[in-house]
Amino acid sequence: MNAMTVSPVPQTMRALSLVEAGNPPTLAVVERGVPTPGPGEVLLRVDACGFCHHDYLVMTGTLRRGVTPGVILGHEIAGTVVALGEGASALRTGDRVVSLLTAACGRCTRCQTGREHRCVNGAGIGHVRDGGFAEFVTLPEAALVAAPVGIDPQHAALLACPAGVALSGVEAGEVAAGDTVVITGAGGGLGSHAVLLAASKGAEVIAVTSSPDKLAGLESLGASMVIEVGDGPDLAEIVLAVTDDAGADVVIDTVGPPVWPGVLRCLGQYGRVALLGDVTGEPAPVRLAEVIFRDLRLSGVSGVSRRTLERCVEMAAAGELEPVLAEILPLTTRGVQEAVRMVAERRPLGRVVLTPA
Ligand SMILES: [Zn+2]
Ligand SMILES: [Zn+2]
Asked: How far does the centroid of ligand 2 lie from the alpha carbon of residue 175, in Å?
């Protein structure tokens, strides 16, 4: 099965260079040497890499903490194994894989307890170590999962982030059938997948978006109701009105400070909040009495475990999850600039994916 012919690996590759962070950022696709896989690593030919809001925040300079200068961005990688490093034995050339978001060691206590995304020896892909906005990338075998059969790489690239992260949010919020679930930033990558996954669990999904043109798209993903924020009565007033003042059971918040006051006030007794995004980095005030007297539970969700990614792979293979692909653009300077513009203008419903080929 793995005796696929893999074309010879060249010496150099095209890769995206963030020349200068800013708004808009200065970007260029440049020639770089093809990396050599270290012990336990493999070399992947990148087939597709999702353009995450994380990449956008680094490019605009909003997110700088922990970013290695000159790092190749991109952590939503689907690729094909083309070479094996010393001791790599779990994969073979020709295998198609998707990556976790962190190059996890597979050995530490957290890796051994299903928290690979917080591996104590881990390095964020496309953040600390080079990522997938390139023709090739080296990654540890421990950070890779077999891609689902019969799914194209553009969809497979989205199974860890945003799909797996969104599923982690749905699980952190303990979404169950019949729950009222408010999802902010619903038109974005994380939000659209949270809508899809919460609705598939039988929840009543209230999708919150700032883009009126995404209304029909969000309904087609399973939202029972779409609220446009920034216009008319605020989020909490609407949610309380449509739930007969009971409030929502769960909020999956992918936005943060701009919607935060409404997020807390729209929750009912024993409400749960899964926090998946902070688009501004500004403080978000909390009146603790609101949390205490409604017995609220707040959970931060920072990534996706191997188990949850594997669950997304199984769901995709079974036809139960089709990642929300907004647009495919080439890994060229103009292609990436267009991706940045689309995200800046909040145009995509779901994710933009870059393809090196
Ligand atoms: Zn991502
Ligand atoms: Zn580890």
From this structure: 29
- CB-based contacts of 39, cutoff 8 Å, min separation 6: 85, 86, 87, 88
**pLDDT tens-digit series, residues 286-326:** 999 999 999 999 999 999 999 999 999 999 999 999 999 99
Q: Which ligand number lies closest to the CA of residue 116? A: 2
Among the bound ligands, name the one nearest to the CA of residue 112.
Answer: 2
Lookup: tokens for 48: 């597709």
State the CATH number of the domain containing residue 65: 3.90.180.10
Q: Which residues of 262-298 are buried (b: 16+ CB within 10 A; e: fewer)?
A: bbbbbbbeebbbbbbbbbeeeebeeeeeebeebebbb
As a whole number, mean pLDDT of residues 11-24 equals 95
Q: How far is CA 173 from CA 100, 204, 271, 287, 314, in A?
A: 22, 14, 9, 21, 21
Residue 228: CB atoms within 10 Å: 15
Tell me the residue range of the domain where 283 lies: 165-300
In a domain, 337, yes or no: yes
Q: What is the dihedral of CA 230, 235, 237, 243, to 10 degrees?
A: 140
Asked, as a colleague might, if the bond just before 258 is cis with ω within 30 of 0, I would say no
Ligand approaching nearest to the C-alpha of 103:
2
Q: Which residues have CB atoms below 5 A from the ion given as ligand 2?
A: 104-105, 108, 111, 119
